[in-house]
Specification:
Structural class of chain A: alpha/beta
CATH topology of the largest domain in chain A: Alpha/beta knot
Largest interface: A-B, 37 and 37 residues
CATH architecture of the largest domain in chain A: 3-Layer(aba) Sandwich
Helix content of chain A: 25-40%
Distance between the termini of chain A: 54 Å
Number of domains of chain A: 2
CATH superfamily of the largest domain in chain A: SPOUT methyltransferase, trefoil knot domain
Strand content of chain A: 15-25%
Oligomer: homodimer
Low-confidence stretches of chain A: none
Radius of gyration of chain A: 20 Å
CATH class of the largest domain in chain A: Alpha Beta
Mean pLDDT of chain A: 87
Largest sheet of chain A: 7 strands, parallel
Strand order of the largest sheet of chain A: 7-6-5-10-8-11-9
Chain lengths: 271, 271
């Protein structure tokens, strides 16, 4: 059953479950193929009224029993509502030209981030702090978890459906595109010690107003050495000596916050 | 078996598992009651040599079979090494006088944070960004997950053993202590809309060099209304209009990073 999978089916559709994610899917402007209610899930219908009752859209509404819904649900305590949605698709050109309203592109690139909860949390933070696009890519060690898996989608609170998102691109191709479009690449690290051979800068020493791509590596290994050392700069988040590293999603939040802080200020500040 | 529990036993001891956490326990200066190796876990012994072989300490070393270890282990793929450790205990006065090396106290207060992964991640971030102490307290809706549960300890990467940490204190008592010691309280929120009735400030508008306590609320409900409105200030992390909230641990990381950024700078900056 497609609702269960979470990963895009052959048709490119993704299953989302629970009132919050279904609402985000309807709100996102993505094509919603169907909405499914169980008997007890029917109570959520009113919440989606403004989307489902608009005359110009005709979203098929399906009904099932609570027992059947339980069988296809991915969560432990299903709330009786799910939808099948087709995420928008974006090209590499859409990503590198993603600057909005006069702001330069700020692209978040996940390279071998394995935990679906981290992938979702980073996308949620990226959307909150004004990243203009996100990309997932494999590192030499392994792929990035799908942003459309049930766990990623829940952690992203639906942000994966709102962002300009390109999943599963080849890293060399992506880096070549950034070079051609003059988008600077920043290698980030959640570890104090680990960093590339480029200049090491603190987050507040970066000019985040420029066209930028922020590369975020694997939770344990970080970015592959050759990626970190070929980046235009490597960011080191200063930490207490007693601490070796912080959580990958926490590190991403810190960097994207710093970008947002600078982009909201009238003039660049380096304290 | 005490190793399994993770929660302090009657003796106040906590079980920690895996080479990384055992090393953190030995490094923390907490009293380690025993270290347990399974047959295959014995290969980690050399890693702890500097701690276990010091003549002035006599930590009992226990041995067991792989099969018995599996039975008491909390993780799915146990690595064959565990320890029983007694966390240091701190008084309320230790917490409010926790400023170090000329820096004012920066106390992180978790109020009803339910997810043990979030509790651990926030403590790890707090240690990384120079918080001087941490406290867990219940909100009206429910308690904060134990920082010494196996999942919290893993997420904290052992930071719970390094920090000045006071677990499970009464919130009114704590707030009274802060008032008496002239420690300002900041109510944080991971939601754009939700905040107390005090002045709403952006993270960069706060003077983080002052003696401060940062109050972090429940993942879904945030801080209880009466706590948020009685705080000296409420912090709002500016976000894109399309995003309702960010993950509670991500929000904490952002605020503690901002504190660290300001405390490292030679003079206060408000961009």
């Amino acid at each position: 059953m497609a609702i269960r999978g979470g990963l895009p089916t052959e048709s490119g559709a993704v299953g989302v479950e629970g009132p919050r994610l279904v609402e985000e899917a309807l709100r996102s402007g993505c094509a919603v193929r169907a909405v499914l209610f169980s008997e007890s899930g029917q109570r959520h219908h009113a919440r989606f009224g403004t989307y489902l009752d608009r005359s110009r859209v005709a979203i098929p509404i399906l009904h099932t029993t609570d027992r059947l819904f339980l069988g296809i649900a991915d969560t432990e305590q299903p709330q009786g509502v799910a939808a099948l949605v087709t995420p928008r698709t974006f090209s590499l050109a859409d990503i590198s030209a993603s600057g909005v309203a006069g702001a330069a592109p700020l692209v978040v690139v996940l390279v071998g981030v394995q935990d679906p909860g981290n992938v979702g949390t980073i996308l949620r933070t990226a959307a909150a702090f004004g990243a203009t696009a996100a990309v997932t890519a494999a590192s030499g060690q392994g792929g990035t978890a799908s942003p459309f898996s049930p766990k990623s989608l829940r952690a992203s609170a639906g942000a994966a459906l709102h962002l300009r998102l390109l999943a599963g691109i080849s890293l060399p191709l992506l880096l070549e595109e950034f070079r051609a479009r003059e988008i600077r690449t920043l290698a980030s690290s959640s570890r104090e010690a680990q960093a590339g051979r480029g200049p090491l800068v603190a987050p507040w020493e970066v000019d985040w107003r420029a066209p930028l791509a922020l590369l975020i590596g694997n939770e344990g290994q970080g970015l592959p050495e050759e990626i970190a050392s070929s980046a235009d700069a490597a960011i080191r988040i200063p930490m207490s000596a007693s601490v070796e590293s912080i959580n990958a999603a926490a590190a991403a939040a810190v960097l994207l916050y710093e970008a947002s802080r600078q982009r909201r200020s009238p003039a660049r500040q380096i304290p």
